[in-house]
Write a structure and sequence with these properties.
about 290 residues, 8-stranded mixed sheet, 10 helices
Length: about 290
């Protein structure tokens, strides 16, 4: 299963989208709340159920002991989001000041998440928050760059509004260049469209020169529940957001599978000499006709 990282140019519903995808997946799933600006699910959707003793920051302390210690601590810092325990959350930072301590943790954490996806069959979603740039590159502290580099898919979350597309234009080229230089390739980059605004998927694809891999409807009632928790809205299980999120997880899996096949079997570069021979044979055959 893929490891999918979600980012935005500004607040565009990254956390809400990641939460919807995690809860809607047909497979076991994990949401890793890795926004250096701090996590919101703990105080919002979970309404304070999870104490500060559980979460991302403690993995940084474990990693300083060694990579094996981080792997062993990982499972103990996951919080179940359903009764069966198939939907899990790695709660984010409670204090953005803790982000500086995570610089050396991201690569080891990425490896653990890929093992969970590849060997345990989990859909893994990474809430990487808002992109922060420094001199045209991903900021080393304010963005979890190693998680983006290693992700199977990196989704830039945008809305179908002029304001959202304008902001996205400023970050998409640096993000694409970052994935080309340090990641698994620029084709890892796609768009997740929140269908709020006049622009449709084909227009967004044309404007940002990147494919819209899936769309999620603008569903204020469900989004508010994901943001602040409390009683779920009426018809929550059949809400447009969850139904479309379930389809989106399948679209992401298909996109990641296509990338994997293309990486294993890249197009063969044509042999110039052989191409010339075939062309001459073709021309002779046409002359005889």
């Amino acid at each position: 299963m893929p490891v999918t990282a979600l980012v935005s140019a500004k607040s565009c519903g990254v956390t809400t989208s990641a939460l919807a995808l995690t809860l809607a997946s047909k497979r076991p799933s994990l949401l890793a709340e890795c926004d250096p600006a701090g996590g919101t699910i703990r105080a919002g959707f979970l309404q304070g159920e999870v104490g500060a003793g559980c979460g991302l920051y403690h993995l940084a302390a474990a990693e300083r002991t060694g990579p094996d210690a981080l792997a062993q601590a990982f499972a103990s810092h996951l919080w179940p989001m359903d009764d069966a325990g198939h939907r899990k959350l790695l709660p984010g930072l409670t204090d953005p000041g803790q982000a500086a301590a995570l610089g050396r943790t991201w690569p080891a954490l990425s490896e653990v998440m890929h093992v969970l996806a590849e060997e345990a069959g989990y859909d893994v979603f990474v809430d990487a928050g808002r992109l922060a740039l420094e001199s045209g590159r991903l900021h080393p502290t304010l963005t979890p760059a190693p998680l983006l580099h290693k992700a199977d898919l990196v989704l830039l979350v945008v809305r179908g509004t002029e304001q959202s597309l304008t902001l996205a234009r400023h970050v998409i080229d640096p993000l694409r260049a970052e994935l080309a230089e340090h990641g698994s390739g620029p084709d890892a980059l796609g768009l997740l469209l929140i269908e709020d605004g006049p622009y449709r998927a084909h227009q967004v694809t044309e404007a940002l020169k990147a494919p819209v891999l899936a769309g999620l409807p603008y569903d204020p009632a469900t989004a508010a529940y994901f943001s602040v928790g409390g009683r779920p809205p009426r018809g929550y299980g059949r809400s447009p957001l969850l139904r479309h999120a379930r389809t989106a997880t399948e679209q992401f899996e298909a996109a990641a599978s296509r990338r994997s096949i293309q990486q294993q079997y890249p197009p063969r570069s044509a042999n110039a000499q052989l191409t010339g021979v075939l062309q001459r044979l073709s021309e002779r055959g046409a002359g005889r006709g």
